[in-house]
Amino acid sequence: MGASPTITARGAPRAQAGFSVLEAIVAVALIAAAFLPLLALQTQLTRTAIAIERAEASLLARNNALALLQAINPGMRPTGSEDMGTVRLDWTAKALSDVQPARGQAGTPGRFDVALYEITATLTFENGRTDIFTVRQVGWRANRPAGDLG
């Protein structure tokens, strides 16, 4: 026969104190199962944070490249490269319109010939990733010396 429960002075069986090993294992398994979705959430949050950092770096590099391209005259410098710290900018420009003389207020030909250019810019990051974008910009060339008015 098995062991009989301990009987108290009033004749009722006494309850055992504490948890059994099986109860502890089940509790740990339930807690682990509850934390699995949190682990998946943490992983997704980390991936999202990395994607946001990349997008922010790309946006910053693109803004810097646009500022640099605004200072370049594509009529005089249609191709080039610039090192921008951790990013390299390469560009090529092609004329979208015929070169035309700029006109003064009275409609007289000005000192410059102008054309609209499309600039294709490539940003190359340290990790080898590239970002390509295009902008349109006016380029010019002097067609006569400054003192020559006519």
Number of strands: 5
As residue ranges, the low-confidence spans are none
What integer is the average pLDDT? 87
Distance between the termini: 126 Å
From the alpha carbons, calculate the radius of gyration and give it in angstroms.
Answer: 37 Å
Q: How helical, in percent, are the residues?
A: 25-40%
Task: Tell me about this structure.
With 150 residues, the chain is α+β, with helices and mostly antiparallel strands. It contains 1 helix and 5 strands. The chain has one helix at residues 21-70; strands spanning 79-84, 87-95, 100-103, 109-125, 130-142. Strands 1, 2, 3, 4 and 5 form a 5-stranded antiparallel β-sheet that branches. A hairpin with a 4-residue loop joins strand 4 and strand 5 (130-142). The longest helix has 50 residues, at 21-70. It is rod-shaped and about 125 Å long. 8% of the residues are buried.
Brief summary:
Helices cover 33% and strands 33% of the residues. With 150 residues, the chain is an alpha+beta fold.
Topology (elements, then pairings):
Elements (H helix, E strand, L loop, with lengths): L20 H50 L8 E6 L2 E9 L4 E4 L5 E17 L4 E13 L8
Antiparallel strand pairs: 1-2, 2-4, 3-4, 4-5
List the keywords.
single chain, 150 residues, alpha+beta, five-stranded antiparallel beta sheet, 33% helix
